[in-house]
Amino acid sequence: MRKGGYDVSKEQTTYIGPEGVIEKRKQYFFPCTHHFYRNPPQIVRGSMQYLYDEKGTQYTDFFAGVSVVASGHCNPAITGATIKQLETLQHTTTIYLTQPMVDLAERLANGILPGDLKRTFFCNSGSEANEGAMLLARLHTKRRNFIALEYGLHGRTFLTMGVTGIPMWRADDYLDSGVTFIPRPYDPETDDETAARRSIEALKQVLEEKGDTFAAMLVEPIQGNGGMIAPPDWYFREVKALLEEHGVLMIADEIQTGFGRTGRIFAMEHYGVVPDIISMAKALGNGVPIGAFATTDEIAASFNRASASTFGGNPVSSVTALAVLDYIEQKDLVGRAERLGNQLKSGLQALQAKHAVLVDVRGKGMMLGAELHGTDEQDSAALTDRVLEAMKDRGYIIGKNGIGRNVLAFQPPLVMNEQDIEGMLKELDAVLAEAVQ
Predict the structure, then answer these.
(1) pLDDT tens profile 221-235
(2) Sequence-distant (≥ 6) Cβ neighbours of residue 304 within 8 angstroms
(3) Contact indicator for 210, 201 with CB cutoff of 8 Å
C-alpha cells in the first residue's frame, strides 16, 4: 500500500473521501485552487454522461468538465484507441517522425477546419493555443497590440491573461499593456441589437484611431465564462469586415465552442465567418490534453523561426483526437447537439416563465446559460450556489459562470439523451421553487 489512500494489493481502490481530498488540497495546493459545493463528492469514475462518487452515487453530468468530454466520459470507442497507442508508443516529441500527428493535421484540413484554414500547430492546452495564435499574429502583421472584448476569457499564460477581460482571471498585476478592450455585444440594461451596435461603433473608433498598431482581435463566438453570451448573427460579419479594412487578423477562440458543442463543428459557422486563425482544445481530446491553432498557408508562412512543443501532437493525444473526430461524425454529435440543445433551451425557457428568479436563458446548441437573480448581486451568487448544491444532491452536476457568478452553465456531454434532460428539468423546477423560500 502506498501513501495517498490507493491500495495496490486490492482490486478496489481505497478512497480517502471528500474530507481527505480537501485536507490534502489545503496542505499541498496553491491557495488559488477552489472547488464547487459546500459538501462536494469525491468523483472516482465516469461513464459517458454519468459520474460516480466514492460511495457509488450516480450523477448526470451537465458540465462535462467545462465542455471537455463532449463525446462522453471514458467512451470505449475513444479510450480503446488511446490505450492501444499507450501500449505502442507514447512519446518521441515533434523533432522525430511519427504518423498520428500528421494524420490528425490532414484530417483537420480536409473537412473539419473552415474555409482555407489548413495548417495546424499542436500544443497541450487552450491557453497555449491562444498564446501561439497571438504570437503568430504578431509575426505575420509585424504589429504588437491586440483588441479584445470585455469579459472574455482566453487563458492563464502571460499574453492570454492580458486579453482576458474577466477581473477574477487577471491574476498578474503586470500584464501586457498593448491590449485595448471594447464593450462586448451584450448589456443587461438594453437589448442585444443595441449592445452589439455599441460594440461595433467602439471597434470602429479604436481602429480609426490606431488600427495600424493591432496584430489581431481575439473573440469567443460565445463567451463561456463571461456568462454564455452569444451576439446577434450579423455581429461577427461586421467585425471581420472592419478588421480586414485595417489589416487586423481575427483569432476565433473556439476552445469551449468547438467540435459540435453549439450544433456546428465550430461556432463561427453560425455567423458565416471564417477567422484568420482558430484555436482549439478541450473537446478535441475528450479529456486527454491537447491544444492547437490553425491558419492559412499564407499566414502560417510567417511562423518560420524555430519552434516546437515537447508534448504537442504526441502520439497518444493525436490518436485520441482522431478517434474523437471519428465518433463525432459516426454518431452525428453535431446534429445531436442542435436537437438536444433545442429541447434543453425550450425547457429552460419554460422554467423562466414559471420562476421569477430565472431571468434569462441564452446560448446555442448544448452551450446554454440560465441567469439567476436574487435581491442583489451577492444574493444572486448565493442563490446560484444553493441551486447547484441542491441539484448535486439530486444527482445532477451543473456548472456556473458569469461576471457575478450567477449563471447556471449547461455544457453536457453530447451523448446525453432526452430522458436525461427531462429528468434534470423536473428537478431544477423543484429546486428553483425551494431556493426562494
Answers:
(1) 999 999 999 999 999
(2) none
(3) no
